[in-house]
Amino acid sequence: MTEAKNHVVWSAPGELVSAYKLLNENGDLVPDLESQAVVKRAQVAKYDFFFRKGLLLANPFDQDGELIERDYRVNDFSELGYELCRKKIPAWLKGKGSKKNPPDMSFFEKALVEMAKQ
After folding, report:
1. Helix/strand/coil for 103
2. What confidence tens digit (pLDDT) does each residue in 63-100 have?
3. Which residues pair with 73 in a beta bridge?
4. Which of 10, 15, 17, 23 could crosslink 72 through cysteines, CB 3.0-4.6 Å?
């Protein structure tokens, strides 16, 4: 598969987490630890769900259960997994389910049932 067809679907999880910053009282950009914790929890839940369901073909966790810092490309997903990413991940990330503790994965469960019917 060419590089263009095997593009990055999910960049390394730490990249997204570290992007959450805020200005402190001195006007310096510093990590927003509260938001980073919420985003990291959502990332772990997302990767775990996709891997357990066979949608993500590469194990995203190391032997200690930590997310591996690597990009995930089209070839790392099943066909259904890639479609679920394209169609449902953006809405889930914007919604309340991704911010719950633990994140609510029922959105994806329902989407899988819908997609299986098609």
Report:
1. coil
2. 999 999 999 999 999 999 999 999 999 999 999 999 99
3. 8
4. 10
DSSP string across 24-53: -TTS-EEE-HHHHHHHHHHHHHHHHHHHHT
- AA identity, residue 50: F
Q: Angle, to 10 degrees, between the axis of helix 106-117 and the axis of helix 79-94?
A: 140
pLDDT digits (tens, 9 = 90+) for 11-70: 999 999 999 999 999 999 999 999 999 999 999 999 999 999 999 999 999 999 999 999
State the Cα–Cα distance between residues 74 and 29, nearest whole angstrom: 33
3-state helix, strand, coil in the chain (%, to 5): 50, 15, 35
